[in-house]
Design goal:
Pfam families: GH3, GH3_C, GH3_M. It is a single chain. The strands form four sheets. Strands 6-3-7-8-9-10-11-15-14-13-12 form an eleven-stranded mixed beta sheet, with helices on both faces. Strands 2-1-5-4 form a four-stranded mixed beta sheet. The model is unreliable at 1-8 and 116-120 (pLDDT under 50). Helices cover 37% and strands 21% of the residues. The chain contains 18 helices and 20 strands.
């Protein structure tokens, strides 16, 4: 692709910025109308057939008889649902880093590193040139839906601030690059768009996250930021640093033209009220996105205030009922026949060579037309040590409800089981919670969690009757910054790393509690 760097000075002029905003608004209306009239089932069917045709001469395509696939049913009969480990062991490991014509045509140029939060092992997820284009299209769709709903929110008059991981990609033996997905996106950003973005390249290469956030705060405070993107926990750290370096009491005083905050990666509910207070402006809107290393899944549509699956960017979606995951041949729904309210595991087939790939996330549909979902958790993030069958969404809701009832903000938390140590005594759940400021009555906080889980989960209540199978939850306070220090001690600080919210084994929970106690972070 020819360089567009020479155009960057021109695009930074006030006149061009105004013109760019006008063009973006026109595109936003067009793109939203296109999505609203789209035949999602037909688009998805055509997407799968196009991917199959393109990959039929790859090793995977030959192994699975792609040349004879004529329908979704044909495809599902030949390609089972599989997880990352299967693809790695069967096709990628022996050839890595040169994955060429194995599961996707041609040589893979990038690998997105994923921490694999459910397994703990680093994953190298292939990112093809087609996937680079897919992610760009998804980003423009997110912006378009926001601008369509907020036509007065001019974004190109200032800068988009991307608070992502390091852009320092590691060159592999074959010349491919591996690193954080945000680093890949930054590298592939058109030069003519760089005047509209922050931070500059030299700052993104900093690997020490404390230094990086400090430098981000110092420099961005002087920039006209109109949009901000990042994981909520790190956005909160950035806000704190910004107020420290400027002496201002709200983010709106620092960035008066801020209009959009894009967040993802964790549940936003615990942060919503805190962010409203920190920002201090009703003009700023929040937008949730659901990206993953394997492909972009959904973005919030302000028309409906739910995540909307993006069906037309070279990804085919399947959804497996969570209760059938252990079956050899689970039922595989598409966007044409999913049911509202059912817990599904997300399965992707993409333009980067993953085929009916189990992502590890769970969702539930709010509506089928258009396809609206809510993120409910991880396939391996559950809590059922005593038969209580809690999922991430329910625990998140209970903590948020308790925080609201007690007048506090829970910035981060982790929960796991504490098993009985003496005969005849029941076990319980231990919640380690970091609060933004102050601390609640812990007994009341625990009771609010308990009451909410009793209300929303029909399996939880019977296990709590008479304290026979499970005792009242226990809540311990983690001092502000404690979770960040725990992550740092494990080499998982910053970037796209997130605090593990649930641990069904109890081992991680015990390790965390002991670490906080021994290192002075227990409240």
């Amino acid at each position: 692709m020819a360089s567009t760097a020479f155009l960057a000075p021109l695009t930074d002029s006030r006149l061009v910025r105004r013109a760019a905003d006008a063009v973006l608004l026109r595109y936003a209306h067009h793109r939203t109308a296109q999505l609203n009239r789209m035949d999602v089932a037909a688009v998805q069917r055509n997407t799968l057939m196009r991917l199959v045709r393109k990959a039929k001469r790859t090793q995977f395509g030959r192994d699975h008889d792609f040349s004879r696939i004529r329908s979704i049913a044909d495809y599902q009969a030949r390609v089972p649902v599989r997880a990352y480990e299967w693809f790695w062991d069967t096709y990628w490991k022996n050839a890595f880093p040169r994955i060429d014509n194995l599961t996707w045509p041609g040589k893979i140029p990038y690998y997105a590193l994923s921490s694999g939060t459910t397994s703990g092992a680093t994953k190298y997820v292939p990112v093809s040139w087609e996937m680079v284009a897919s992610n760009k299209k998804a980003g423009f769709t997110t912006t378009a839906l926001f601008r369509h709903a907020n036509p007065g929110a001019k974004l190109f008059t200032g800068k988009f601030f991307f608070l992502g991981g390091s852009t320092d990609l590691r060159r592999q033996d074959d010349g491919s690059l591996a690193g954080d997905l945000s680093g890949i996106a930054s590298r592939e950003l058109l030069e003519l768009l760089r005047p509209y973005t922050f931070p500059p390249r030299d700052l993104t290469l900093i690997t020490n996250w404390e230094e990086k956030v400090r430098r981000f705060a110092e420099l961005s405070a002087r920039e006209p930021v109109t949009a901000l993107s990042g994981i909520p926990a790190w956005l909160h750290v950035l806000f704190t640093r910004l107020k420290e370096v400027t002496g201002k009491s709200t983010i709106a005083e620092i960035w008066p033209d801020l209009r959009l905050i894009v967040h993802g990666g964790t549940k936003f509910d615990p942060y919503r009220e805190l962010f409203k207070k920190e920002i201090g402006s009703d003009f700023v809107k929040f937008c949730e996105v659901y990206p993953c290393s394997e492909g972009f899944v959904a973005t919030e549509d302000p028309q409906y205030q739910h995540l909307r699956v993006v069906p037309d960017h070279d990804i085919f979606f399947e959804f497996v009922p969570v209760g059938e995951l252990e079956q050899d041949r689970p039922t595989r729904h598409t966007l044409a026949n999913v049911e509202v309210g059912v817990q599904y595991a997300v399965v992707l087939t993409s333009c980067a060579g993953v085929w009916s790939y189990l992502v590890g996330d769970t969702v539930a549909f709010e509506r089928r037309d258009p396809p609206l979902i809510r993120f409910t958790g991880r396939t391996k993030y559950f809590l059922s040590a005593f038969g209580e069958h809690l999922i991430s969404e329910e625990v998140e809701a209970a903590v948020a409800r308790a925080a609201s009832a007690c007048g506090v903000v829970a910035v981060d938390f982790h929960v796991g089981p504490v098993f009985p140590s003496v005969p005849g005594k029941a076990g319980h759940h231990l919640y380690l919670v970091e609060f933004a400021e102050g601390r609640p009555d812990l007994a009341r906080f625990a009771k609010e969690i308990d009451d909410e889980l009793n209300r929303i989960n029909e399996d939880y209540g019977p296990h709590r009757v008479g304290d026979l199978a499970m005792l009242m939850p226990e809540v311990r306070v983690v001092k502000p910054g404690g979770f960040a220090e725990w992550m740092k001690a494990r080499g998982k600080y910053g970037g796209q790393n997130k605090v593990p919210r649930m641990d069904n084994s109890g081992a991680m929970t015990k390790d965390m509690a002991n670490w906080f106690e021994n290192n002075g972070w227990a409240g």
